[in-house]
Amino acid sequence: MHPVDLVRLVLENLGRRKARVALTAIGVVIGTAAVVVLVSLGIGLQRNATEQLGGINDLTIIWVYPTYGEAFFGGGGGGVVVAAPGSSQPPEQNLLTPQALDALAAIPGVEGVFPRDYLQGGATMQYGRLENYPNIMGIRTGELGVLDLPVQEGSLDLGRNTAVVGYYVSQGFYDPRQRPGQEPPPPPVLIDETVKLVLFKYSPEGVETRRTIQLRVTGIIGETRGESDYTAYLPIEDLEALNQWITGQRPNRNRDGYPMAIVKASDSRDVLDIADAITTLGFQADTPLSFIQGINSFFVILQVVFGGVGAIALLVAAIGIANTMTMSILERTREIGLMKAVGATNGSVLAVFLGEAAGIGFVGGLGGVLLGWAAGQSINVVALAYLAGQAAETGSLPPSIAVFTPAWLMPSTLVFATLIGLISGLYPALRAATLVPVTALKYE
Questions:
Q1: How many Cα atoms within 13 Å fall on the side-chain side of residue 346?
Q2: Cβ distance 406 to 412 under 8 Å?
């Protein structure tokens, strides 16, 4: 049978039973729409989570920590001593010495390596009557510019006795002598102003000693929703002098190394390979990209689960198609016998009924993908309006998308629905093709 004649015959047969075909196709519409909406929801959640994390963290950054003969859990946030597998001895100690930093810089794809140090005592930042308690961190001159941090005011360049502060540091000053009900003071204008950094330490007898230094604020970092928002950056040489006063010991980097370092990759696609190389050198490596990969893996599983739920609805629709085609064969048994009597082959009969089943799947799938796309857009509008309101209340970043339908999903789902119809009609079509013409013509 010519393909054009086959298509025309299939359309005529489906047109003769419009109500039954429509009712059967509704099941396919519901199942297909469920697949489109649920998978689009999973993809939208994944894209939104990735965008939110990508906006908070620079994906080319790797935090590197030394190993002190202990296995730390949580990327330097505390640790538990764990012996190496098969050994009662702890892992080898690897410090971030200048030589180690050179080895990190030699890894292919690394743009820069920046050691960091923390203040090893307490400190209060004061501006007039106002106070603040930022994190104090020492960095190398020029590091902030290389890390592409946003500049709200001033410059990110550091010099002797200068500081660059984060967004919430500049906004977080308060008056410790403020009375209840009194209006809080406005945030001070710190650019090119001098602030006091009051350090304090305690002797073994518990005697407190204080030291005050003056710092000129050269820049304010824009809001990043990360570490920099709550940090005051000093030149690492200045911080080493402060730590020497607090601890009474002069830092020896060749012996003690640095507490951490930042490795910046030239391309985010190389980050995981660089992190593996850092781990091979014996250091701990942590990067937001590895966390995002874990998030992506979770959402892939979520998409499979969502797609499976929609596929169950399609399976129910497939049973309906099989039932409809079986009833059609019973009603058209004599017609099948007549087709064979005038020369139709088993293959032609099989093609006609498979074409009708696939046609029901195609019509239902087409309606389902259109309905699913429209439902996804409606959910997107409602969800974004709600989530934007929630973000405004919490001060977080508003989401850009809630439901995302990729270009490949709709045609893929349409093809899948058509195949479901084709497979559902396979048994009834085989039954029709194997009917004996004489028996079929006698069927009442």
A1: 7
A2: no
Which residues neighbour 22 within 8 Å (Cβ) at sequence distance 6 or greater?
A: none
Residues 378 and 233 placed together within one structural domain of the fold = no
Asked if 43 and 166 sit in the same domain, the reply is no
pLDDT digits (tens, 9 = 90+) for 315-333: 888 888 888 888 877 777 7
Last residue of a domain, one of 255, 286, 317: 286
Distance, in Å, from the CA atom of 326 to the CA atom of 393, rounded to the nearest integer, reads: 58
CB atoms within 10 A of CB 371: 17
Residue that finishes a domain, picked among 231, 260, 286: 286
Is 161:216 a contact under the CB 8 Å cutoff? yes
C-alpha–C-alpha distance, residues 163 and 233, integer Å: 5
Residues 267 and 400 in one domain: no
Name the domain count of the chain: 2
The Cα–Cα gap between 418 and 433 comes to 21
pLDDT at position 88 is 46
**b (16+ CB within 10 A) / e for 372-406:** bbebbeebbeebbeebeeeeeeeeeeebeebbbbe
For 136, phi then psi, to 5°, come to: -105, 120
What are the tokens at 349?
Answer: 């009969």
Which domain covers residue 302, as residue numbers?
A: 3-55+294-441
Written as six digits, the tokens of 185 are: 């003071």
Shared-domain flag, residues 197 and 327: no
Q: Which two tokens stand for residue 2?
A: 């010519």
- Which residues in the chain come in under a pLDDT of 50? 71-90
Pairwise CA distance, residues 421 & 126, whole Å = 74
Query: What per-residue confidence (pLDDT) applies to 1?
Result: 60
pLDDT tens readout for residues 38-58? 888 888 887 777 666 655 556
